[in-house]
Predict the structure.
Amino acid sequence: MLQHLIRALATLSALALLLGCATPPAASSAHSPTGLGSPKNDGGIFQSKHAAFLRRAQEGPVDLLFIGDSITEGWAHRAPALWQQQYGRYHPANFGIGGDRVEHLLWRLDNGELEHIRPRVIVLLIGTNNSASQTAPQITAGIRQILDLIASRQPQSKVLLLAVFPRGPRKAPDGRFEDNAQRMQVIHAVNAALARFDDGQRVRFLDIGAHFLRDGQIPPELMPDQLHPSLAGYRIWAEAMQPLLGDMLAQP
């Protein structure tokens, strides 16, 4: 009887040891996608950049995160030295993709770009690419979803919500000039609505659009194509944003 009991205990011990050494299943993402937004179908460029952002998030700390479209992405190839000078000490990351609309950024954030990082401040600029086909309430509602998603996934982060930048007359793919006046009407209405999202604490709104204008027009030396800043334009952006951004980064 005693021998049977000893053999049973030995068997149980061996089993416990085996289970303890077994490789645990891979940990799942902290958050599962909720179906917000939609990805962009552009031959794989969007998904490739999204994958690169996921890798960047896993590489190391990010204290300052910029998210947006080509205007944000442009820091990397139009003003890299200025970016490093202004933000290098904050372990910055740039998650901007050219051509992104509100729904594309929303999809990216919902699908992993807010995982593995804990940014102190997130700089958000998005909406200009929606201004030709959506109303101001539609664009504003999408940006509200982005803010709500950030609050859910990164509750410790503060958001510096930038007004949509001004844009000038540009040629459409068919060679005609787009209806810039109509687009600017939409942008003005979006910015007026975004200003109401400023709660004085976690979300701060900043409109620096006037810094890009001279007598109501955008000088070509600041935005050569009337949309994307030059190096001089990025310097204006950095200088105009620094007082508020500095305050936000200094807060606990």
